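Input structure tokens:
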């Protein structure tokens, strides 16, 4: 099995990032077609994350090929409500691995790198959202000590 290297993205990685988002977006459509559609991603917001000091695209690379990504972002403090304890945390916005590279530990490596990213910034936890239908992703996250903290429910009208 080739060695996987995790590294931060640069602007030259934009085509690889866009290709990975096409894979992610197709899966979102498959899981919730009533809410997602396949549409081209705009480059500018992705470049802003690449250039931001409080965010990183962490890329998984094998033999010079980008095969996965995690977008981790400093989320700030928990809401300033009197009943909420203050915590600084990061958000894992996206995680995707090319289909043909799955089940090789790449997602685990990206999660580990995302946790290190947050720890290096002295943040208290890493938070993410996952579609309820995405059982493989949920299994991966639970295997890495993520636990359900809130639940979003929807009623169609």
């Amino acid at each position: 099995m080739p060695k996987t290297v995790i590294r931060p993205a640069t602007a030259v990685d934009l085509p690889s990032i866009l290709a990975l988002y096409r894979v992610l977006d197709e899966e979102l459509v498959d899981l919730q077609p009533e809410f997602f559609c396949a549409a081209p991603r705009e480059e500018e917001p992705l470049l802003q994350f690449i250039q931001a000091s409080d965010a990183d695209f962490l890329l998984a690379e094998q033999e010079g090929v980008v095969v996965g990504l995690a977008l981790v972002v400093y989320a700030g403090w928990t809401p300033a409500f009197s009943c909420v304890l203050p915590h600084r945390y990061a958000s894992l916005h996206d995680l995707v691995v090319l289909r043909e590279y799955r089940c090789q530990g790449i997602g685990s490596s990206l999660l580990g790198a995302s946790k290190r990213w947050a720890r290096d910034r002295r943040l208290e936890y890493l938070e993410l959202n996952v579609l309820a239908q995405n059982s493989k992703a949920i299994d991966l996250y639970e295997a890495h000590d993520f636990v359900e903290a809130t639940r979003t429910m929807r009623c169609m009208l």
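The chain is about 30% helix and 25% strand. Helices lie at 14-31, 43-51, 106-120, 135-143.
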